[in-house]
Every structure is written in C-alpha cells, then in structure tokens.
Protein 1
Amino acid sequence: MSLLPRTPSHIPFVSRGMVLVLIGLGLALTACSPTLSRFERTLATNDSATAALQQWCATRGIAAPAVVQAESDRSEREAASPAIRTALGVGPEEPLAYRHVRLRCGDAVLSDAKNWYVPARLTPAMNTTLETTRTPFGTVVRPLGFHRERLESRRGRAAECPAGTVLSHKAVLRLSDGRGISFVTECYTRANLAKGTS
C-alpha cells in the first residue's frame, strides 16, 4: 500500500505555485532582455516618443508600413494634479487639455499614454488636429521644436500603468524657451519585445 498522500486538493496548490514561479521568471527575463535595453536606447535618443516608436516598429518589423497612430476615447477626462500643473508652469485656472491614447503600429499596441497639454501654447491648427484626428501628439507638435525633460524611467509597471507594461516613463515636453507644453505618462507594452526581426 502506497504511503504517498493522494489528496486531490494538493494539485491546485502546486499549479498555483508553478504559475507564480513562471510569472516571476518571465518578469525577470524581461527585465534582463537585451531587446528591452535596445528599446530603451531608442527611446532615449528621441525627444518624441512617436518618432521613437515609429523607428522601433520599422527596425523590428512589427508592421509594414511602420506608421504609428493614436487611438483615443475623446469622452475620457482626467483632471491634472497640482504636481502636473507645477511641472508645466501653469496656474490652477489655466485650461489644460487631456488625451489618453494607445499608440498602435499595425495591429500592435506599443504604448498606453496619458497626456495633459497646454492648448494656449500650441497653434489653433495643432489643437484642431489633436481634437479631431488619430495623429499622435509628437507628430502634431513637431514644428515647435520641443525637447523632452525625462522625469522618471523605470523597468516594469508603474502604479498608473496597465498590466503588461515593460517600461514606464514620465516626462515634460518643453519649448526652446523652457515653457512646458505637455506632461506625459507612458506605459510601453510587451508588444515591443514579443515580435520582430532583430
């Protein structure tokens, strides 16, 4: 007669444990991924996240043509915190616009981003384009010659990012005179790593 326990309840416990181990191993491997390191370098060399993603999409062969578009819910609203207003250099009464987008290249969503921007510091044509099209913010405001002030960069998911985030950024986009035009939180997805040719 076997002395080994035959209790069926042991099986789910082992399965859950194995799932947790595999998830932890997957996250550790992602954090050490050379592809993630290359992706970080691509982002770091561009002031525009849109330009970086378009370059990355083309290099990795994620989609052809490598065109990034912004999908957004125009009815969504989120008030800017005092910290965001301070970073942009605007008072509590200054109007800010809000855009929550998913930047997509082909079928792949590469970034989930929230953007609070100062309409008064853009041209009327730029504001109209942002309100009525799927053109990404970085593409629309490129003629302003903005630069990126990186506030935070971390591997993995920040608190405000959805599950599946491999890289989290916060930044302010500034004009040459230092005025902020946009505060962004950017959550880059696993799709940046899961497919490609390099």
Protein 2
Amino acid sequence: MPADHPQETEVIGDFWEYPLAFGDTLSSHEWVPLHINRLLTSRFVARALAEGRRADIGTALLLWCEAFRQDPAGTLPDDDFELARLAGYGADVEGWRAARVGALYGWRETHIANQDEAPDNPRLGHPMIAGIARDMHRRKRGRDQARTEGAKAMARTRVRRKLIEINCTRAAESADVVALIADWLGERDLYITSDNVRAAFEATRGGPKVVQFQ
C-alpha cells in the first residue's frame, strides 16, 4: 500500500489476535515510519485538541516509539507502573493514570499467539501501530534471511576451494556435496580449514567423526 496509507490489522469483535508473537522484535531498528497525514487528520488528534489535552499527543507519540522496542514489536504492557515509566512519568503513577485514557486512544487488549509462554504479561495493541510493526518485521525477516543465505554462499565457496586444495576436485564440482559439507561444518561451528573439510568429507560419507582443531 502507499506509504501514507498503512494497512491496519483486522480486529473482529472483542478478540484480537496480534499479528506478531513473543520474540518478534525490532530491537535493531532506529526508526519507524510516521504517517503524518494519517496522524494530523485522525480522530485522536482532533479529540485531544477539542478537549484541550494537547499533552496527550506528545505522550502518545512517546508510547508509540516505545511500542516498537517492545516484545512483540508494536505492543505495550497493560501495567500502569510500566506504562508510567515508558510515557516519561517515572514514579508519578497517578499522573499517568490521569493521562491514560487520552494517551492510549485506540489501544486495546490483544492476544499473542504464544501467550501461554508469558501468561502474566498482558499486552495492549493498536491496529495501525500493529500494521506498521508487522510490515517492518517482514522486511527485517527478509533482510535476515538474505544475510543468512549470503553467509551460506560464502561458506560453500570456501569449502569448494578447500576441496580443490586437498585434491578432491570431483567433490568440489558437485554442488550437493559442497553444500552438505558446508552445512555439516556449520552445524558443528567448525572452521573451514583443509583438515576439517577433509574430515567432514569423510564423515558425510560415513567415515570418522571430526575433532575441532584449536
């Protein structure tokens, strides 16, 4: 969708299944998209201005930013002590509670797919924030996968070179053999040395097990 029209996650009735699970984080990200037109024309901003509660806008923005650093990304803890800290109120929990309704406009309880692993960690979610977090996590996962594939390709290249060095040219010409040796070494966190490649080549053919060289 166009950048100024983020796709919200669907909420049906009282039960809302969050699109990300515990462990789906964006901790390595330093930025998130801010859909300016959507914010300025939102009911949230209109209501805050009409009711003379401009401070709610700033508090909400702080919580939105903090939400992207949470687990899962885009959620907030449903706990006033934690929310007071995240919103910049510190130990002033009563001050936070007075601002809570306005600052959490649009947020609601959400169910996390693997919530059984953290039953004492109820979370809040916002459909628009959740949509942004989901899209960002998909892109992050794609980048992580690309890095993993790149590392595997580099390892296979190094294995192929070592096979040639130890006069296993025929094996070096087989993509399947090279991949098998590279995976075997990777699973055991072994360096791609000539000795390890030779031992891995024998091991994958049912030969002796390799001992890691220091």
Protein 3
Amino acid sequence: MAKGHRSQIKKERNIATKERRPHASAKYVGIPATKAKIVLDQIKGKDVVTAAAMLNYSPRYASDIIAKVLKSAMANAENNLGMDVNKLYVEEVCADQGPTMKRIRPRAQGRAYRILKRSCHISIILNER
C-alpha cells in the first residue's frame, strides 16, 4: 500500500514528471500551420539571440507571432528557472494544426465556395548549452 495521502502522492509524481526545459506556446493563432513551420524551421537549433534577429528581419507574417513566443520562452527561462539567456538555444519547435473555421463565399449562379480559415498552436522549447 502507498505511503501518504492520495493528493500528496499525485503531487510528488507531478513534480517528478514536470518539464525542466523552458518553453512557451501560443494557442489558436490565426495562421496555417504550414506557413508557421516555414519560419520555425529557420530558427530551430540556433541560439536565441540569432533566432530573435532572424525573426526581426523576416518578411513573413508568422515571424512576428513566433518572435513573441520566443521572447516569452526566454523570459520563462530567466525568471522561472534562473537560466542565463546568453547560453540558451532553440531545441524544439512545433506548429500543430488547430481548429479550422469554415466560411461560405457566394459565387455566381447560386453556387457557394467554402473558405477554410486555418489556425495553429505554436510552441517553442529552449535548452542550455
């Protein structure tokens, strides 16, 4: 039989499995995952200073949103985990498909075309070198 109260056992298990790497995510972002992945692939494996500079000068719309997520992950690393920002690099990036809004566009002769407004969930995981 287990020792301690059920809530204490769950608490200890959650602490043991908790993610130790700094991360940040943005949910329900109004861009398709395919367009976000193009920008995310460019910064994967780079150190955070270089990645932030690349996102700052990228002409794509997704780069502004991804820059915010990267900045948030950097702040999480510094404030929550006490890591040095200069030693961080982008370890994992992910753009998962979110819900799709379906809209109707009226066309000629009573027809209707469907417009799919896709969204995605962007997450960035950093690590120290």
Protein 4
Amino acid sequence: MKFNSKLSMLMISVSTALFLSACSGDQGENAGKESSGDHSSHANMEHSGSGEIPEGLKEEHNPTYKVGSKAIITEDHMPGMDGAEATIVGAYDTVVYSLSYDPTNGGPRVENHKWVIHEELKDAGDKPLKAGDEAIINTEHMEGMKGAKAVIDTAEETTVYMVDFTPTDGSEKVTNHQWVTESELSPAK
C-alpha cells in the first residue's frame, strides 16, 4: 500500500473507533436506566448462559410454550431481540421481578432491570416480595449485579422461560438466555 492509502485507512479506523466509543459512552442523566428500547443498562449483560438454573426453581409442568417449541419474542431487552424466533429451553414457575440497584463495581445505577427471579435473590424466603421491598441480588446477569442491594420495582407470579434465539440484527446466536416472561412471547407462525 502507498503511504496515503495507509494513512487513509488509519484515519478511517480511528474515526470509527471514536464514533463507536461515543455511541456506547455515558448517555447523560438517563445512563443506566431501562425502558422499552433503551439498552444502556444491558451493555455488560451476559445474554448467553450456561443453562444452570438456580437452586429451588421449579419447572412449570403445563407451560403455554413447551420445551422444544418455537415462539416469537415481543420485547427488546437488547438490540435484535424483538421479533426474534426463540426455541424454548426451559419453563419455570416463579415470581419475576424488575428491580433497581447500584452495581457493586461502581457503575451507574440500573433502573427497572428485567428480569431477576425469586430464586436469584439472597435469603428471599418463601413468600414473594412486593414493590418497595429490598433484597440482595445473588446472580450475575451483568457485571456488578451479584451482591448488590436492590429495590423491587414490580413483582409478578408467572412462567419464565429460558430461550435460545438468533437476534434479528444479525448478531451472534444467544443460548440459554435467562429470562423471558410468558407475556413477552407470542406463538410462532
């Protein structure tokens, strides 16, 4: 390559890196907050999992979506999730929580994180928690989550699913994703 071509490629690479870092940087006062279509707090989320389930989690014996069946995801916890076809890997009967917490690694506060299940909270007891209750998170869906003190935003007794899916944005296949609620799925066509 000629010197000018190398310089041009270097400038394009540097520009791209700066652009990407600006896109993933602090989003101002809304950094770390979740809402439909806002993925800033999922930046460090491990979307694929080992398939291990928390101790005490009970299988749902008659789920709407049977293990091995297909369903369409209707929520967008991360880019490419909404509209993706999922294969059901597991179905469990539990209480699911959205919650807010300050990560143990000093990251920005996470608001309304979806989802943590009852069995992923430390010493949560047998009864469901309710909005406003505090709990210690005992799972690491994202960096800085395990050990964080959380405030429950919502609680719902429902069936949760572990799913495999290929994101609609063409990114890498996600396996054993925890969790998608029954209301976030629709029948595959």
